[in-house]
Amino acid sequence: MTRLPDPAASRAVLIGTAAYQHLEQLPAVAANVRDLAGSLRDSLLWGLPEENCTVVPDPPDPSAMLDPVHRAGQEATDTLLVYFSGHGLRDAETADLYLALSGSRANTGYTAVAYEHLRVALRGSRARRRVLVLDCCFSGRAARTLSGDDGLAARTAVDGAYVLTASPRDRVALAPDGETHTAFTGELLDILRNGVEDGPKLIDLDTLYRVLDQRLRAKRRPLPQRSQENNIGRLPIVRNRFHAGGGSPAGPVLDSDVRTAMVVSGLGLARMLRAAGRQRDALPVLRLALRERPPGEDGTFAVQLELSELLADTGQHKEAIEVLEQAFHQNHRTFGPEAVLVCRRLAELLQEAGNHIQACEVLKHALDLTENGGAAPAPAVPGPLTPEAQPPNSWRPFNAWSSSA
Q1: Residue-wise burial string across 356-395, b where 16 or more C-beta atoms lie within 10 A, e elsewhere
Q2: Domain boundary among 225, 244, 263
Q3: What is the pTM of this model?
Q4: Which of 69, 81, 97, 188 has its CA 20 to 30 A from that of 12?
Q5: For residue 51, how many other CB atoms are within 10 A of its CB?
Q6: Please, which residues have CB within 8 angstroms of residue 177's CB and are 6 or more apart in sequence?
Q7: Residue 374: in which H helix or E strand, if any?
Q8: Residue 315 belongs to some domain of the structure
């Protein structure tokens, strides 16, 4: 993957319980969520809009913790990131993982939030990728349920999910005295803020885990754990700040940077207009955002999908198919949830237009991508051909299909 998740189509929920009535206080947790929110919103790192990054301090009850996750899960269509920092508890009978609330008590799971409930909230999200970061004691239990190590995996797996935890399943996390942050989140923030010297231009989740493991191991601190589904570890999460010279800006603002900002802003504006029922006004905004895509960059999936959906809703099915054709030709060898979603949406439009055979071919290609991890042969030439130029029984350009029924 060569792009960061779309900030306009992504959400983050950062939960931190620092103040407790019956458990040890964790003042470092308040600094954790505050500074992590600042890093995720930093335009030099990810640039998540403030309204898309929700901070939940000291939730008093399960609904206060989980409602923001459910809400963000329904709003996000690209990536959902959920972070929890606080006490992790084990139930006295089952030893299952529970996330502590302000009024939680030790060895009483019913006074806290079961990890299972957070997992269900993630599983119900519309987001194509889900990232869960747990900085709490015994958090490795959450990673284990996704790793396939035991029978729990079958009923706890979350499609498209990456779980990163602060400690193994039977160890406590660490909040060192005199340090601003907990051990795990302190290292995490240092990586985000200062980058990785030998790392890629975009830091993906697997690189983040590798560097965290190296640094915590060197300090003899609890080691992080991870689990993933669908190779989501390749997902870039922030820009590598090291390549920008530490705290200095990355250099002059480039034309591509301006265009990228226009695309993100245009997509956000179009969604606001659609929500207000102003579809006619949203259409030109989306068309402009698509035209302003930085040259040389792969298709802007979020814009293309949004535009095709709006075109279909307004009865312009032929143009909707043409937009998805463009997305397919730009990314027909790409493996990932976005490419599969483009194929699925295109197949739906083709079927609605009566082109059932072509719809099946598109779905077969999506299946090949999934099974072969992106190594499936491209069923299309690099660029569209006119119907007359196609050999018999060949893969025709999608815009020809819309008129062939």
Answers
A1: eebbebbbebbebbbeeeeebeeebeeebbeeeeeeeeeb
A2: 244
A3: 0.60
A4: 97
A5: 9
A6: none
A7: none
A8: no
Q: Show the CA angle centred on residue 299, arms to residues 295 and 303, nearest 5°.
A: 110
Residue 207 maps to a domain: yes
Degrees to nearest 5, angle at CA 239 with 34 and 307: 95
Same-domain check for residues 34 and 178: yes
Question: How many other C-beta atoms lie within 10 A of the C-beta of residue 125?
Answer: 24
Q: What does the pLDDT profile of the chain (405 residues) look like in tens digits?
A: 568 999 999 999 999 999 999 988 888 899 999 999 999 999 889 999 999 999 999 999 999 999 999 999 999 999 999 999 999 887 666 667 899 999 999 878 889 999 989 989 998 999 989 999 999 875 544 444 433 444 333 333 455 688 888 865 444 445 566 788 898 999 999 999 999 988 899 999 999 999 999 999 998 888 888 887 667 888 899 999 887 654 444 444 445 556 666 777 777 788 888 888 888 888 888 888 777 665 444 446 677 878 888 888 888 888 888 887 777 666 554 445 556 677 777 888 877 777 778 778 777 766 665 555 444 444 443 333 333 333 333 334 433 333 333
Helices 27-41 & 183-194, crossing angle to 10 degrees?
A: 20
Residues in the chain: 405
Cα 129 to chain centroid distance, Å, stands at: 4
CA of 24: how far to CAs of 12, 13, 60, 175, 252, in Å? Answer: 27, 24, 16, 11, 48
Partner residues linked to 238 by β-bridges: 203
Q: Is there a single domain that holds both residue 201 and residue 107? A: yes
- Region of 40 please: left (phi>0), alpha (psi -120 to 50) or beta: alpha
Asked whether residue 97 is domain-assigned, the answer is yes
User: How many Å is the Cα radius of gyration of the chain?
Assistant: 23
Asked whether the beta carbons of 210 and 164 are under 8 A apart, the reply is no
C-alpha distances in Å from residue 18, one per residue of 15, 31, 35, 56, 110: 10, 9, 14, 11, 19
Asked if 340 contacts 370 with a C-beta cutoff of 8 angstroms, the reply is yes
CA distances from 235 to 128, 239, 352, 374, 381 (A): 11, 12, 33, 15, 28
Q: Report the number of distinct structural domains present in the chain.
A: 2
Phi, psi at 245, each rounded to 5°:
80, 45
